[in-house]
Amino acid sequence: MKKIFDYKTEWSGLKNRMAQMFNSKSGRTVLLAVDHGYFQGAPAGLEDLRKTIEPLLPFCDAVSPTIGGLKSSFNPWVKTPIILRATGGNSMRKPAELDDEIVTVSVQEMVNLNAIGFTTSCYIGLPHQTDTIANLTTLTDEAHRYGLISIGITAVGSDPVLGKFVKGEREDGGELTAEDKKDALKYLKHACRVVSENGADIVKTYYCDGFEEVVEACLAPIVIAGGTKRPTKEALEFTYNAVKAGAIGVDMGRNIFQNENPVAMIQAVRAVVHDNMTAAQALDLYNSLKGKK
Known about the structure:
Elements: H1 13-21, E1 29-33, H2 37-40, H3 49-53, E2 62-64, H4 67-73, E3 83-85, E4 87-88, E5 102-103, H5 107-112, E6 117-122, H6 129-143, E7 149-154, H7 160-167, H8 178-197, E8 202-205, H9 211-217, E9 222-225, H10 232-244, E10 249-252, H11 254-257, H12 262-275, H13 279-289
Parallel strand pairs: 1-2, 1-10, 3-6, 6-7, 7-8, 8-9, 9-10
Antiparallel strand pairs: 4-5
Helix pairs in contact: 8-9, 10-12, 10-13, 12-13
């Protein structure tokens, strides 16, 4: 696993902010993604943003909202570190243009809002690849002057070929073939390396078979995206497998807030990431917590 901190080097603002979002004992992180509304509108589970996030905040190490979500729905007394979504300009109303993003939050505004870092999508292999990489590099260059964390996301937009890696199935609903899995590994190795080569401090990507090779090829630590909503057992299994393969945590949204028992789910995910529970042990924990206040 790639090291996040080297305590032998001198203190810096960037390292201090990293320390805020990583558990000091496990060296890993559980990020809660609640920024989906910037292109999805009001997805299931996020209709009332404040009602959704407040019970979950005690169990995540950092939370990633949009600027609108932060200003409208977060209590200013919240101590959970904020990672702001910094790019957008797209919408599901024009799905073919999902890879066409612009910078929507300035670094000065991140500082004003006391965010510790930002996320930006990079659409490797899609028509607006150059523009989205430029978003990452421009923001990272300025953000590092203030010691803010840069998280680059390997996004796939509405591309039907790349999308199957996220959904875990083919367009026809069938299971991924051995060749599909080989393609996924090749693509994610390439995409993660490109994003890290362009300056991201952390790369957010999807889990695939052979994930150890993705981790090894990437120059920055990797957190796993939850992707589309999956059954509880399956979501815990890929979380366990990703951490075992070298991921330094998760940045999960729909598999938590769309779960039938979101508070139980985030605690189960946390147990896998920080307490080294197996997927089976975490599922037992989840079942024991269901229905409890």
